[in-house]
Amino acid sequence: MLFVVLTFFPEIIVLATSVVAKLKGCQPSSNVTCEIGPSSAGEIIRSALEAGSFVGLRFSDGLAAIWLTLGCFLIWKGWQRLSSRLLLGLAVSLVCAFVPYFGPMLSIGSLVNPNCNPNEGGIGPCMIYGGNIGFVAHDTVRLAWRIADGAPIALGIFGIFAIVAIGAQIVARRATSPTAE
After folding, report:
1. What region does 52 belong to: left with phi over 0, alpha with psi -120 to 50, or beta?
2. 175 lies in some domain
3. pLDDT score recorded for residue 79
4. Helix 82-107 vs helix 136-143: angle between axes, to the nearest 10 degrees?
5. How far apart, in whole angstroms, are the C-alpha atoms of residue 25 and residue 19?
6. Chain centroid to CA 46: how far?
7. What are 39's strand-pairing partners?
8. N vs C: which end of the chain shows fewer Cβ within 10 Å?
9. Is the separation of the CB atoms in 120 and 141 below 8 Å?
């Protein structure tokens, strides 16, 4: 399952940074830099959004096929029941079909403020917690369009996995059932 969580780790970082910043009393719309350890909340969020955008772009470029094939293999090795394999395969495929494209945008949804309104046109600066997030906030909105490339890959890999899993189940049943003569 850690394998799946790695897919949306950048979004977890954005959400965790936001929680820590709020606990420190920082506001997303503030012009004062919110320091978190050796860095600022804005810098951490910008870096995480860059990583999330990179993941989304690579998944839509075909990394999803490799990632899901490996994930399906791990599911195959880890679970014996066909229903478990298919349900987990579907869940992982759905995560990989949607999260890399919508996750970055959704992770900063609660941080939208008068100083940062991410949009497809890339209009306006984006300041969150006193830090300049830059154009990566706007890129997260445009990333959602890449779902048209990535989701079919993820769902196609699940379809192949389901056919192979069901086929292997049928072959295994025939091999273990007594033949009637």
Report:
1. alpha
2. no
3. 93
4. 140
5. 10
6. 16
7. 36
8. C
9. yes
What is the C-alpha separation between 157 and 17, in angstroms, rounded?
A: 33
Report pLDDT for 181.
52
By three-state DSSP, how is residue 23 classified? Answer: helix
3 state DSSP class of 32: coil
Give the pLDDT of residue 1.
67
Q: Which domain holds residue 93?
A: 2-170
64-100 pLDDT, tens digit each: 889 899 999 999 999 999 999 999 999 999 988 998 9
Tokens of 125: 């600066």
Task: Specify the number of domains making up the chain.
Answer: 1
Rounded to 5°, the CA angle 79-81-86 comes to 80
Q: Quick one: pLDDT at residue 144?
A: 92
More confident residue, 4 or 134: 134
Residue carrying structure tokens 């899901």: 68
Given phi > 0 = left and psi -120 to 50 = alpha, else beta, which region is 122? Answer: left
Answer yes or no: are the C-beta atoms of 29 and 112 closer than 8 Å.
no
| Average confidence (pLDDT) over 123-129 | 92
Instruction: Report yes or no: 169 and 86 within 8 Å, Cβ to Cβ.
Output: no
Give the list of residues 6+ apart from residue 19 with CB closer than 8 angstroms, or none: none
Is residue 20 assigned to a domain?
yes
pLDDT of residue 105: 93
Q: Is residue 181 in some structural domain? A: no
